[in-house]
Design a protein that fits this description.
40% helix; 10 strands; alpha/beta; 302 residues; eight-stranded mixed sheet
């Protein structure tokens, strides 16, 4: 497209914006004219503790560069905290046009060693954090009549699995499902909802890469493009990092279908594993209600 993507007059909320990719989202949106709520609880990588310094430093960076920003130190792990984060944007800047739900923690352990506390903490920050901020933002965008943009943060661990991250993977795949439903519900109100799976070296992954291939800033271009008013994409998931950008998607293969009135045995299913598991001819499914359409088409043609 011709010209720089600008966000003048737009208000963005970025959670987990005190460092890593969240900080880069906030800085880049502010540089392009958005007024930004910089949210960060300021806790440790495992979610314990809190501090105002992380969010405050990013706000100071934005203001020093001539932008407008406001800090938020509320936790995304509760609905009350999520509401307060979005309210900060509305009360300070009059709107919430963009939400990037990025806050996260890690408590990695192999599955047999995972505790209830480790599970609940990760679900609360990631999955609950997506719900707690997206719901008030979604309501505001719908009621304003102007629509808006929401980006939720998933992970390759959620999409594909990873050793030692059962809690994190479950939360991140849950976010994918949430995004799909919100994109469907938001369509009539001009609310676009997508997911990003960042690949970057950050504090959570053992140390931030300042300017190398894993630098957090190499994720930001895709997210900035997604939340620009010119982008109509919704319901999609992208991986971004090291200047590599690609789409990930859930698909459904044709499978094997016996006659509708047949009494199918487990042995018959096992005999057709090759057809059941084949990925040739896969299709993307718009929503759960049409997931059986290929079967209906097949039966109608039979």
């Amino acid at each position: 497209m011709a010209g720089e993507m600008r966000f003048d007059g737009k208000v963005a909320v970025v959670t987990g914006a005190g460092g890593g990719v969240g900080r880069q989202y906030a800085l880049e949106l502010a540089r392009r004219g958005a007024r930004v709520v910089v949210n960060d609880l300021g806790g440790s990588a495992d979610g314990t503790g809190s501090s105002d310094s992380a969010a405050s430093k990013v706000v100071a960076e934005i203001e020093a560069a001539g932008g407008e920003a406001s800090p938020s130190f509320d936790s995304v792990a509760t609905f009350d905290g999520g509401q307060k984060i979005v309210d900060t944007a509305i009360e300070r800047f009059g709107a919430c046009d963009i939400l990037i739900a990025n806050a996260g923690i890690l408590r990695d352990k192999s599955f047999p060693k995972l505790t209830l506390a480790d599970l609940e903490a990760v679900l609360d920050v990631h999955l609950m954090g997506a719900f707690s901020t997206a719901q008030p933002a979604f309501r505001h965008m719908r009621e304003s009549g102007k629509g808006g943009k929401i980006v939720l943060t998933t992970s390759s661990s959620g999409l594909f699995g990873n050793f030692g991250q059962a809690n994190y993977s479950a939360a991140k795949m849950g976010i994918f499902g949430l995004m799909r439903t919100l994109s469907i519900e938001g369509a009539r109100s001009n609310i676009q909802v997508n997911c990003v799976a960042p690949a970057a070296a950050t504090r959570l992954t053992g140390g931030e890469d300042g300017d190398g291939p894993g630098a957090p800033r190499r994720v930001a271009p895709l997210v900035v493009a997604l939340v620009h008013e010119s982008c109509a994409i919704t319901g999609e998931t992208f991986m971004a990092g090291s200047n590599w950008f690609t789409r990930c998607f859930m698909a459904q293969a044709p499978g094997w279908a016996a006659p509708a009135d047949a009494d199918v045995s487990a042995e018959q299913v096992a005999a057709h594993w090759d057809e059941v598991r084949a990925s040739d001819g896969f299709v993307e499914v718009d929503n759960a209600l049409v997931s059986l359409a290929p079967l209906a088409k097949r039966r109608g043609a039979a």
